[in-house]
Design goal:
The complex is a heterodimer. By secondary structure, chain A is mostly beta strands. Chain A contains no helices and 9 strands. The chains are: A mainly beta, B mainly beta.
Chain lengths: 111, 115
């Protein structure tokens, strides 16, 4: 699976949009971009995934650049409960495949 | 709650003892994964089951580790002769088979502390 690069930490004010970047310049055509987050003392929580097109669900939006070499996870109105480590993962979409986690981005949402 | 359930949530044991963890996946999920997470690191893959068949094991899964999924439903992970380095969070995840981009859903893990 392709490697991802994320900033180690980010800050966001409560109520503002949180934009978390991820670089995956070696991504292959059959690899999806997945985002998970992990709140302290809990297991990772699936947020969203996409291949080429931008995706939106009740939790977040995923913006993938046209060349697919980078993406941005957007939390439109961050709350204190969004404070967590956010992992961007690239995963092959055939058969089964495991998730290879990096160190992620620690997002701190402040009042 | 129909999510992935793991028991116990915490386990403290002395070095050299055996421990066993249980994972109950989401009921219709036939793929089950075990991961290990140490402090400050992301989870690392240990092993994978499709139904009752264990199809892949990571090199992290030493001979002291064994995992089973006897009827293709719940799974157990046993560690024999525990060592200090086994202290970690052990996470279980499950997913649907078939559609290859199905996301994995995680439980809240079992935190193992070796004294």
């Amino acid at each position: 699976d392709a490697k991802t690069t994320q900033p180690p930490s980010m800050d966001c004010a409560e109520g503002r949009a949180a934009n978390l970047p991820c670089n995956h310049s070696t991504i292959s055509g059959n690899e999806y971009v997945y985002w998970y987050r992990q709140i302290h003392s809990q297991g990772p929580q699936y947020i969203i995934h996409g291949l080429k097109n931008n995706e939106t669900n009740e939790m977040a939006s995923l913006i993938i650049t046209e060349d697919r070499k980078s993406s941005t996870l957007i939390l439109p109105h961050a709350t204190l409960r969004d404070t967590a480590v956010y992992y961007c993962i690239v995963r092959v979409a055939k058969g089964y495949s495991t998730l290879t986690f990096g160190k992620g981005t620690m997002l701190l949402v402040s009042p | 709650d129909t999510g992935v359930s793991q028991n116990p949530r915490h386990k403290i044991t002395k070095r050299g003892q055996n421990v066993t963890f249980r994972c109950d996946p989401i009921s219709e999920h036939n793929r089950l994964y075990w991961y290990r997470q140490t402090l400050g690191q992301g989870p690392e893959f240990l092993t994978y089951f499709q139904n009752e068949a264990q199809l892949e094991k990571s090199r992290l899964l030493s001979d002291r580790f064994s995992a089973e999924r006897p009827k293709g439903s719940f799974s157990t992970l046993e560690i024999q002769r525990t060592e200090q380095g086994d202290s970690a969070m052990y996470l279980c995840a499950s997913s649907l088979a078939g559609d290859s981009n199905q996301p994995q859903h995680f439980g809240d893990g079992t935190r193992l502390s070796i004294l």
